[in-house]
Amino acid sequence: MSQLLHHRSAAPLLSSGRRPPPLPPFPGLFVDLEKEDKISNLPDFIIGHILSFLPTKIAVATSVLSKSWRYKWTFITKLDFIDEEKWFTGKEINKEMFLNFVNRVLLHLNSSSIESAKLTLIENYHSYVDQWMSAVVRRGVKKLCIDSAVLSSHSLMEFMSLEQLGLSVHRCVNIKLPSFACLSSLTVLHLRGISLIGETCNNSGNIHLIFPLLRNYKTEDCTWSSSLKYVTLEAPLLEVVSIQNATHKHPYPTIKFCASRLIEFAYDDYPLPDPIVFDLSEAHIVDADIHIGWTKDEQEQEIMVLSSKILKQFKTVECLKFQKWSSKVLLAKDSLANIPSFEMLSYLELGDVTGEILLALLLKAPNLKTLVFQNLLQSDQELLNYDPVPECLLTTLQVVKFEEFKGSEHQLNFAKFVMGNALALKKMSKFNEQNVLETVALSIKLLKQFENVKVGVSVVKEAACAHRTTAFLRSPAITAALPSSVG
């Protein structure tokens, strides 16, 4: 006889002490324990798909559920191996146990293809890593991500079938590039700690790679071989480019991106004599984040040249950021005339910059809405008499933010100039992290000099509220200092 489980608790007693009549049965609340196991009877490839959402070691552990589940895990399509976890013993990792586990999984897989494979390895497994990579590539893996201490040299052509490739190596490893190739499936390419070299048969030093579907390109701590002269990356659908901390060997190759749909560009590196070149005839850049560093004073001229060349290629940018030191020498007086006009620029963020250079940039950005800068350096020019007044101040500029406002005379003069000419200004933030009260006092000092009381009050309140000093605004000293028109 079938055993039935009823999932309803006993009805409570009525005020008379009797129980109410039983409710009619609800079929959905009963479970027949003798019914067949529907999950176990699903096709193996469906069970494998379900198990693929679990970490690989847990998916394999389902083999102990019953005899029928012993090999269900072999149909998984996603692999994720991490050797930094404390396997079984709860102590330090057992390298031999981990190595055997990975080999066993790859040996017994029944899936016709693998959707993704990820290897995160702290220990050094020498040639085994290359064997594991080759095993998943032969099975037609679509997404491959390797984070390993050591990796042998490989050719980019080995990854022809991939849609996404991520290689992160703690010690630099060579990836050989053919003189010409088309990787028709790749949509994401992330490289870290990779040395990109040409094949031995390439005497010209020219590389031309075509990525018809590539949308995201990122390199970090990568090196281009000194034997390369000109590298062309043709990616008509490329949207995001990020280049960080490259290690370059002299002579430097010129890298050209043919990317007509580029949207985001990030560059964090030291200057190069031959910069990265973009073919942006049809591109509409939304966000450009540039940080050019240097270690010696004599490199300032190189930075000016590189910055000018980069800026000329981003005329349609909407959000432009020059981090830290970049803007300090970015727009030297001799190079201001070469800076293009940014008709679509609405957000500008700078590091340390002088007043005349800042205003020269404002003249190049007629539709700017938000201006953020780290520190305003000493200026030789009297900004109150600056002529002509940038168009954005008169029409579009709504937000101005000082990251480091110390109340020096040239900073106060610039603040007066902005508040006196920015007709659309809604918000001005000025913060002195070391002395909040001084910031508030300086803001009030400015507030008294202008009819734009609403903007001035927002400056004072924001400075105080951001540092939880709203009670300070109600003090008699501050109340007396505020203009009488402020309620």
Describe the model.
- With 487 residues, the protein is of the alpha/beta class.
- The protein has a domain at 40-152.
- It is built from 13 helices and 23 strands.
- It has helices at residues 44-51, 56-61, 95-108, 127-138, 300-312, 326-330, 355-363, 391-395, 409-421, 436-447, 453-466, 470-473, 476-481; strands at residues 4-6, 30-32, 78-82, 116-120, 143-148, 154-155, 164-177, 180-182, 188-198, 206-210, 216-220, 223-224, 230-234, 240-244, 254-258, 264-269, 277-279, 287-292, 319-322, 347-354, 370-377, 399-402, 427-430.
- It is globular and about 85 Å long.
- The termini are far apart.
Quick structural overview:
The chain has 487 residues and is of the alpha/beta class. It has 13 helices and 23 strands. It has helices at residues 44-51, 56-61, 95-108, 127-138, 300-312, 326-330, 355-363, 391-395, 409-421, 436-447, 453-466, 470-473, 476-481; strands spanning 4-6, 30-32, 78-82, 116-120, 143-148, 154-155, 164-177, 180-182, 188-198, 206-210, 216-220, 223-224, 230-234, 240-244, 254-258, 264-269, 277-279, 287-292, 319-322, 347-354, 370-377, 399-402, 427-430.
* Cα separation of the termini: 83 Å
Sketch the major β-sheet: 16 strands, parallel
The tally of helices reads 13
Structural class based on helices, strands and sheet pairing: alpha/beta
Average of pLDDT: 76
Name the poorly predicted regions: 1-9, 466-472
The geometry reads as globular
Q: Summarize the amount of helix as a percent range.
A: 10-25%
Radius of gyration of CA atoms, rounded to a whole number = 32 Å
Number of strand elements:
23
Strand fraction equals 25-35%
